[in-house]
Specification:
The protein is of the alpha/beta class. It has four helices and three strands. The longest helix has 10 residues, at about 35-45. The protein is globular and about 40 Å long.
């Protein structure tokens, strides 16, 4: 079920690849004060990262892994959750060129 009429995508590179990695997204390191943050997520009924990834995919969000970062780190598409796409900077730029909103972290 899509929530917007827009096409949505998340491009993951380097550390961001952990979000869509089959194993790493289960054990993402949290910053200092992580216990309080984890409790805050639970109190606010916010799902864990693996569930958020599944929810995003079910809503039609494209998850794109950066090919260059994968090559540098030594990862393959099989290392990631099912349903991701692999692309580089050109893939992101092609997707973002017509976007009204682009978020970077």
């Amino acid at each position: 079920m899509k929530t917007t009429k827009k096409e949505e995508a998340v491009t993951c590179t380097f550390e961001g690849l952990q979000l869509i990695h089959k194993e790493a997204h289960h054990n993402l390191p949290l910053p200092a004060g992580k216990e309080a943050m984890a409790q805050g997520f639970q109190k606010a009924n916010i799902p864990a990262i693996p569930e958020l990834v599944i929810m995003a995919q079910e809503l039609g969000v494209k998850l794109i892994a950066c090919q260059m970062a994968m090559d540098v780190i030594g990862l393959t598409k099989e290392d990631f959750v099912d349903g991701i796409e692999v692309g580089g900077a050109v893939t992101f730029l092609d997707f973002a060129k017509d976007a009204n909103v682009s978020l970077s972290f």
